[in-house]
Amino acid sequence: MFGPIFVTLAITIVLLAAGVWVGVGLGVSGVFGLLQILGLDRSLDIVGTIVWEQNTNFVLLAIPMFILMGELLFHSGLMSKVYLRAATVVTGLPGGLLQANIFACTIFAACSGSSVASAATIGSVGYPEISKRGYDRPIALGSIAAGGTLGILIPPSIIFIIYGSLSDVSVGKLFLAGLVPGLLLAGFFSLYIGIRCLLDRGLSPRVDRVSMVERLRALAGLWQMALLVFVVLGGIYAGVASPTEVAALGASMALLFAIGSGRFNLALVWRAGLATVRQTSMILFIIFTAKILSMTLIYFRVPAAVVAWVNSYEVTFTHIFLAVVLIYVLLGMFIEGIAMMVLTVPFIMPVMEVANMDPVWMGVVICIMIEVGLLSPPVGLNLFVLQGVTKEPIRQVIVGTLPFLVLQLLMVAILYLWPDIALYLPGAVMGG
To answer: Which domain holds residue 18?
Structure first.
């Protein structure tokens, strides 16, 4: 039995190392493993069933809706206005437009659910302004890349939707659990920028002060984003609608805002729709190919062997927690976040049950570890997205993001010490 397992895993590693698309690499190795165990006919039945179930999953239907919502806001120019208003609101804080990056990313995170979309949007809108005003480029690039990762932690989050479907955990509870850690992490990023800019005045130029009236006017100009967040999150938390239903409502509202923006036309709808189809297809393809590989490993009884190994030793809660963090640190350097999660959660869940880990709390930890992976060289996705948008050397992007990566790991440590930071809101609002 061990021979086929090692062959399957070896094929996976070789294909991913060779630069084959993640979905293709996972699917090929998974199908190869199934063929060794079950033969052609049974393997095709299982692959067909997995593809059908994943692509007709009502919970996962929220993914294209949230992506479409973010794309409509981006292509209509509303996010450009959000960035400029955010810059006005935070004028006077140490760091200037660097603080605006974090503030705007936080707002966009609450309207998108996608880390890559957040980094690409703020990078294309904000970085030209930053570069021409003489800001230090590494810290500017790092603030955008790190701020973009908030898109998968602050609800609505595509990662939480996928995790909820894999672990049979309430997506509404996951959204609530990610809210406080997400805002706290944004606060850490902002605090770090402020301290760095106070200690080294050369990192950011001085800007003209703005009156309180102008700040309040800019804050009031964010009413569309505030209304969108209120409807999406309020609908879920009030129990009025499911995440999928509010995602559709949010996309409809974003379409109305785009129509009222003055830039609406059929070309805008085409660009937003095409981007949505591409991202959704990529995500769902990775999900069902990773599911195929996971199913192969289940047939090889790998999860059962892992649980038996854990039970055979005096492994504590802390040991398992550190092992999960280490696994995600290592995998995050080489594997895309969604694929990493779909591959690992089926095996981590039984071990979590042995250690009496709360699956909602662990979902937040895993989400932050995926954020770490998004900033981890050599294949951190946000690094290359931002490099592609700004055309800056990848080395500068990596150097700028390293301090923010440390802050993400600090957030994981804080959640370990004080899990109620994530669990209090779900318990208070939804019970359990």
So the answer is: 2-430
